[in-house]
Amino acid sequence: MRAIWIIARLTIAEAARRRILWVLLGLTLVSVSLTTWGVERLVSLARGGDATELEIQVGVSQVLILVAFMFSFVLAMTAAFLGAPAIASDLESGVAHAMLARPIRRADLVVGRWIGLVAIVVGYACASGLLEIVTVRFVSGYTPPEPILAVGFLSAQAIVLLTFAMLLSTRLPAIASGAVCVVLFGLGWMAGVFAGVGRFFNAGPLVDVAEASRWLLPSDGLWRGTIYSLEPPAVVLVAVGRGGPAAQANPFFATSLPPTPFLLWSAAWLVLVLAAAAFSLSRRDL
Amino acid sequence: MTLDAPIIDTHGLAKRYGRTDALVDLTLRVDAGEIFGFLGPNGAGKTTAVKLLLGLARPTGGGGTVLGAPLGDRGARREVGYLPELFRYQPWLRAREVVELHAGLRGVDGGAPIDAAAIAGVLADVGLADRAEDAVGGFSKGMQQRLGLAVALVGSPRLVVLDEPTSALDPVGRADVRSIVRRARDAGSTVFLNSHLLTEVERVCDRVAIVDHGRVLASGRIDDLLGESVARVRATDLPAAAELARFGAVETAEDGWLSFPGLDLERIPDVVAAIVAAGGRVHAVDAGRATLEDLFMRLVGGGEVAA
Q: Do residue B92 and residue A103 have CB atoms under 8 angstroms apart?
């Protein structure tokens, strides 16, 4: 265990020394400032007109979901490009050789790196997500029903991509791992859209394939949890009552939290992929 | 493990990458307290052998032990210091922090802790005392290699494996490394020195193995491998009829050097007197023996080598 903590600390220290943390912090401040300013302008315009407070809250919640989507994209990219070089770069540069000749398991390196990067990604998600929610509340008065849960799902989505990038990183060069991860993230999101649209049109095989891909890479399913946690309950009730399957086809709308079996599978998926990464590295000749 | 048990003991160790045999049949023994030179031209399989010994790669044939444990054993690795051929360390860390990191990793799962004084000491030993607080990213290759030596030596491991430890160093640095290696041996470490720099190996090693194409071509004490001494005399104007046969076989080179393999070096004055008596002129005398380079070139047959 001690080796894992040494490597986790090293990973966080690396992010701080290489100014990754500060860049993320700066980006957070810039993006939160700009989006909050945008929300404040929209709310001011709406209040100047004849919009009701409920309409304003629905509008703000939709803007907040779009902002969360932007953050989920940024987080996904951050996770992919932090995870992709985590092992591959150390192997390519030779840094890993000296470390792995020490009395540590290769799994220690993988898990230590993973813990350190998860701490960075979750820290970034919490800082940016909660700051956005607080500032939007300040300018609009709208507070999503489950802000902590929303940030939790946002973080979980990023952790999925981070873990997958690390698995690829044990066998592929850093750039290839990052690129594959980003493409699969996009495909996963599209699978979610296809699944919703396919359900609306009763396109059985399309729904099956799209659903299967959402389970293979559970990032989009977790993203649905973020959306649901940001929506006003009244909107969900109305949309489900009026829209039914059509509402589910909207990639920026969720009618419910991800089902418990999916959440359990997502947790198991993380453990399995991390174990696969450790196994992959342990079987590799350096 | 008994005192006379080998530090490294391999039998028929082999490694194949796809269709390429990197190592075919490595059988060698390194005993405690010696500096063992592992020689070979580039691509001979030296680094592959080191990786197998440290568990960084898995053999496809044969086997062996390091410090009495199977190859790659974690417990044994606690007592091994390693300078990789590609000596790269986290560029954003300070030199002291790199050594601390490795000291910490060495001490996981019950290893003896290494204190700050020992870390400062090993940095001073490799000549980095003044640069201990500098970021590694600003180091020259030579300084990074010195740092790698500090990493390998921290905690006085029982076995120090150095893969091309002087490849980035100037002559002064190379002399420093020889001194460092000898001090490590004197402090109780066994040193496995992987190199293609023959002069370095010849100056510092007790025993050597010469490998090429993944096989050991020769191994043993340097004195034994180099064998008998060879007296050489450079002479001109030497009549063909000069009576030199009594000194044994004589080999003549185009540049005027006469070699007398196996000649008792005490008889060199007699050789010189015989040449002068025959009317020849003596320009130089070399009472030496074959160098490691001579042996290496004979065994490897003109492979790439640096003296």
A: no
CB B210 within 8 A of CB B299: yes
**Chain B residues inside the 8 Å CB shell of A108:** 108
Sketch the domain layout of chain A as residue ranges: 2-282
Q: Is the pLDDT of residue B207 over 60?
A: yes
Collect all residues of chain B within an 8 Å Cβ-Cβ radius of residue A18: 92
Number of neighbouring beta carbons within 10 Å of residue B291: 16
Chain A residues touching residue B83 (CB < 8 angstroms): 98
Decide if A98 and B148 are in contact by the 8 Å CB cutoff.
yes
| C-alpha atoms less than 13 angstroms from C-alpha of A192 in its C-beta half-sphere | 23
Q: How confident is the model at residue B307 (pLDDT cuts 50, 70, 90)?
A: very low
pTM given for the model = 0.86
Contacts 24+ apart (CB under 8 A), A252-259: A252/A62, A252/A65, A252/A66, A252/A69, A252/A227, A253/A227, A254/A224, A254/A225, A254/A227, A254/A228, A255/A228, A256/A228, A257/A224, A257/A225, A257/A228, A257/A229, A258/A153, A258/A221, A258/A222, A258/A224, A258/A225
The interface predicted TM-score (ipTM) is: 0.84
Domains detected in chain B? 8-224 (3.40.50.300), 227-290 (3.30.70)
A104 touches chain B (CB under 8 A): yes
Q: Do A102 and B102 touch (CB under 8 A)?
A: yes
- For A105, the closest chain B residue by CA position comes to B74
B82–A3: do the CB atoms touch at under 8 Å?
A: no
- Residue B238: pLDDT band by 50, 70, 90 thresholds? confident
- From chain B, the residues in CB contact with A279 under 8 A are none
